[in-house]
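pasting Immunity MXAN-0049 protein domain-containing protein for the record, 193 residues
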Amino acid sequence: MSFWILGDRNDGAVLDAYPRNAPDGWRYLESHRLSSEFPTDAVMGFSPSFPDRRKVYDFVTSILDIRIVSERVRRIVLELAPDDVEFLPVTLVNHQREVASREHFIMNVLARREVIDLERSDVRMGAILKREIDRVRKLVLKENLEPGGPKVFRPMHLRVNTMIDDTVHEALAGAGLTGCGFFPANGWNGKGT
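structre below
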């Protein structure tokens, strides 16, 4: 069984602020449903720190440790892993506050999974959040993981990242989506996402 780190770093627009009147940013890392608290008119604007970055891809770069994805991504993930995520609709606006997309969503990952072998990995744990990995040099996954379980998840001890299984990886990679990257989780060096 293989897992992949899902990356969204690309040359497109960058998002650097959560929608107004939405749940606080840390709550998206807690793997809880937020749809009942999420505003129906949520807007996310392109970062003024990146004025030349205006392209809108299926995966939009975010410095917020959340994934902003298109309707195309939403359909694929809901078909394969409907219980692992919820999608919170957002309108993306460009630097002039003009609508760039009404078909993007925050992919709020609800599932967590214990897959990292902390003893064999080369990682540094956080100074404040001592159970969370702060830096990865080489990630090693546990051997003989049980089949089944979440297909899209935030790994225990590394909640700022999203992992996907082979099924989801094959579907996303085969769909011709833009703005995303996939990195084998076992042996991952912490770069590229």
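Residues 112-184 form one domain.
Helices lie at 71-80, 166-174.
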